[in-house]
Every structure is written in C-alpha cells, then in structure tokens.
Amino acid sequence: MNIIIFGPPGAGKGTQSDFIVKNFNLFKLSTGDLLREEIKKKSSLGLKITSIVNSGSLVSDEIINNLIENIVSNKNYKNRIIFDGYPRNLSQAENLNKLLLKYNQKINIVIKLKVSLDVIKKRITGRLTCSKCSKTFNKFFNPPLNMTCCKGEALQKRDDDNVDVAIKRYETYEESTEPVLDFYNKMNLVKDLNGEMDIVSIQSKISDYLTVIEG
Ligand code: AP5
Ligand code: MG
Known about the structure:
By secondary structure, this protein is of the alpha/beta class.
C-alpha cells in the first residue's frame, strides 16, 4: 500500500510515519528530510534551497518532483511508500497521480492529522531532532532520556523551528497545501484524525486503518 500522511507543520507526520515504517514495513519518503540532507551536505541543490526552507516557503515543484520520481520509480519501494510532506500543492498532487499511473501504483489512504496553531507553536518550539537519523523528540511532550540519540549524536533544533517561521509555514499550509485535500476527498481517500491526541492513541487509530487495507 501507498500512504499520504497529511497535516500542518508539527502535526506529527514524521512521528507517525516512523511508527508506520516499523510496524508495516513501508518506506518513508519525507521531502523535508531529503531537502535538509541536501542543505547539510551543502550540495549545489542544498545551497539553492537553504534560504527558502528556512523562511517557511515552498521549494519549486520542479526540484521536488525530480526527488519524488527517483523513489516512485524504484522497484524496491513499489507499493510501500509513505509520502510525508508531499504533495504540498495541487500541481504536486497532479504530478504524483501521473507518476503513480506511470509506475502502475496508487494511493490507498490519505491520513489527515488536524492540529490547532497554538499546539503547533508549542510542538515546533519544543522539537529536538537527531541530525543522524531524523528521529524527533519534544522537550514538552516527548522528552528524550538524555540529549543524545544514535549512540551519542547530539539532538538539535531545526533551523526553521522558531515561532515566526512556524507561523509562516502554517500560512503556507493553509494557502497552498490544505486545498489538496479536495483532490483526495473526490477520490474518497481521506481519513481525518484528531492530531492532538497523544502519540500512542494516534498510532492505534492508524494501525486500525492500515490493518483493514492490508486485508
Ligand atoms: P517538512 O520537514 O515537511 O516540515 P513540516 O511540514 O513543516 O512538518 P514538520 O516536519 O515540522 O512536522 P511533522 O508533522 O513532521 O511533526 P513531527 O512528527 O516532527 O518541510 C520543511 C520545509 O521543507 C517546508 O517548509 C518547505 O520549505 C520544504 N518542503 C518540504 N516538502 C516540500 C514540498 N513537497 N514542496 C515544497 N517544499 C517542501 O512532530 C513535531 C513535534 O511534536 C515533535 O517534537 C514530536 O515529538 C511532537 N509530537 C508529535 N506528535 C505528537 C503528539 N500526538 N502529541 C504530542 N507531541 C507530539
Ligand atoms: Mg516532519
């Protein structure tokens, strides 16, 4: 099965995707993680996108769609992808549809996590991320045992994790990304979940949905 995990910044897309990867043997395709990798490597793409990502705007569709085709076309990931942070506008949704058709695949479910801006601000300002494996913790809601992960790797704040950029990312979500839901509603694929429940309760609801799809 292929899944889209959908929601505003800080909704818990990455947290829930990691759970799905472990429990349903899927592959996570997080466009945000891929872009941050490029920024960390200081590749030519990374240098081009640093200021865009750090301002909370969207990177161009051309860049993103190229990253996506590399994965969707890979036979190892066929019908086992979780799209986290993609598609983020209508043109990306249309592109994904074309690609899935080309490689004989489809989306089975779109899981939408609903979270208010107040909760988002707290989640984003409290988030700590492992720069090696991208696992996230939260100093308010999900504190790490110590400040390390991956055998000593320090936890860090993302460069776009401050209140001002979080608000900008939320506005970008409302303007460009939320309309994508109509696209998937027409295909009857959207399941709404209250993203303000605790992490384990959300995992349990997601498991129920995915177990039904697996048959
Ligand atoms: P991206 O990395 O996708 O960021 P985002 O969408 O803003 O989402 P986040 O990663 O901030 O939040 P999340 O929903 O994954 O939450 P998480 O699980 O970490 O994109 C970053 C940037 O890259 C974009 O702004 C854009 O510039 C660019 N970009 C990316 N994709 C693009 C695309 N397709 N097109 C164009 N540009 C693109 O959880 C957040 C925190 O809350 C954590 O600390 C976690 O521990 C905690 N938490 C999670 N769930 C719960 C819970 N239920 N209760 C309590 N705490 C929780
Ligand atoms: Mg994320």
